[in-house]
Design goal:
Layout (H helix, E strand, L loop, with lengths): L4 E9 L8 E7 L5 E8 L8 E4 L4 E9 L5 E10 L6 E10 L6 E2 L3 E4 L5 E6 L4 E7 L5 E9 L14 E6 L6 E5 L4 E8 L4 E9 L6 E6 L5 E6 L4 E8 L4 E9 L11 E7 L5 E7 L3 E8 L4 E9 L5 E6 L5 E6 L4 E7 L6 E9 L3 E10 L3
Parallel strand pairs: 6-8
Antiparallel strand pairs: 1-2, 1-29, 2-3, 4-5, 5-6, 6-7, 9-10, 10-11, 11-12, 13-14, 14-15, 15-16, 17-18, 18-19, 19-20, 21-22, 22-23, 23-24, 25-26, 26-27, 27-28
């Protein structure tokens, strides 16, 4: 924990508009990782993913709404964050992925560039990736462009495209979209003049992988994707000039003998020093830990740790690397682990917080007035 700061955790969850779908917790590292609820927000249907801009005091939550024609479409709701109290105040909301007729274009992921010019949203059900502009106050303006994915994979759950996440490269020249339905990671560039998404190429995954979430190594020389459908992690070497990925290896996320048919993967994250990689198993209900060789992008299994709750849909590492917080959707809880910096291993702290159907948890530091 930094001096004169507080660490806030922002959660998104499955919820009706009448329920508290977005919550704010304070994590006290000095007390061993305790969690205290400081705010909660109603009025959004299924705010399942959030993005935090601590420097500008903004929180962005995806949501869904009816289109009036029997379909569902995505929206983004923006909040100001009071750094002293952690309280949220809604500022604006806009539709991000219009749906016609009975179509469903709800979104599952939201990301933002560091210059606060763009938000990227992914529509799992619609097979779409949306580019949204931000104004100088950090508020979404409009949907500028939509990239349409087409085709299908060969395994159950791959009958159509399913973009699941969009991650900027370290220099933000490229955008990498993991498509679970197509078994590809599609590379885009944003044309700033036309404000459009321009596809540059695909990195194929093995058949039936189902790539979900993607992360770059801190040194920018490698990247890693967690594959939802067959419970694996694939590592790549990255060429930043060309924006291309070279596949290195694929490893199971499960212990020997555990059937992959009884599991699906969700989140992936690297330690700040890039020496350890973490992934979540839903079914086995665990976090898998790997040691990373940064020079080769090869992984070595360290351990599997129970998440003390069912279906760990998401987790996060605190910015200082001291804690990992797992969001167990079916366990209705957040669970706090301390991180051994030397071994990468996780130790359950005994600290938990009750949250209904959590899907996402994002941390950020805020200054404390003295």
């Amino acid at each position: 924990m930094k001096d004169n700061t507080r660490l806030l955790l922002f959660t998104g969850s499955y919820a009706s508009a009448e329920e508290s779908g977005v919550q704010v917790f304070e994590l006290d590292g000095a007390a061993g990782g305790t969690l205290a609820l400081v705010d909660k927000v109603q009025g959004i249907t299924n705010p399942t993913f959030v993005n935090v801009n601590a420097a500008e005091g903004r929180l962005y939550a995806i949501g869904e709404k009816a289109n009036g024609e029997g379909g569902k479409e995505g929206e983004v709701v923006s909040f100001s964050i009071d750094p002293q109290s952690g309280k949220l105040t809604e500022l604006a909301r806009i539709s991000t992925m219009p749906a016609t007729g009975s179509n469903q274009t709800t979104t599952c992921h939201i990301s933002r560039d560091s210059q606060n010019e763009y938000i990227i949203v992914c529509s799992y059900h619609g097979g779409l990736v949306g580019l949204v502009t931000l104004d100088q106050q950090g508020l979404p303006v409009r949907l500028e462009d939509t990239a349409v994915h087409t085709g299908q994979g060969k395994m159950p759950g791959q009958n159509k495209p399913h973009p699941h996440s969009a991650i900027f490269s370290p220099d933000e020249k490229f955008l990498f979209v993991s498509d679970l339905g197509l078994d590809v990671i599609r590379t885009y560039q944003i044309n700033p003049d036309t404000r459009t998404l321009e596809a540059k190429g695909d990195t194929p995954l093995h058949e039936g992988a189902g790539p979900r979430h993607f992360v770059f190594h801190p040194d920018g020389k490698s990247a890693y994707v967690i594959n939802e459908l067959d419970s694996t992690v694939t590592s790549f070497l990255y060429d930043p000039k060309a924006g291309t990925l070279q596949t290195v290896a694929t490893l199971s996320t499960l212990p020997d003998g555990y059937p992959s048919a009884d599991n699906s993967c969700a989140e992936i994250a690297l330690s700040a020093d890039g020496l350890y990689l973490y992934g979540s198993n839903r079914g086995h209900d665990s976090i898998v830990v790997y040691a990373v060789d940064p020079a080769t992008a090869r992984l070595t299994l360290v351990e599997h740790v129970s998440t003390h709750g069912g279906h760990p849909r998401h987790f996060t590492l605190t910015p200082d690397g001291a804690f990992l917080i797992a969001a167990n959707r079916d366990g209705n809880n957040l669970v706090v682990f301390s991180v051994d910096r030397v071994s990468g291993r996780l130790i359950f702290t005994g600290n938990t917080a009750e949250v209904s159907k959590p899907v996402c948890v994002k941390p950020a530091y805020f200054p404390v007035m003295i």
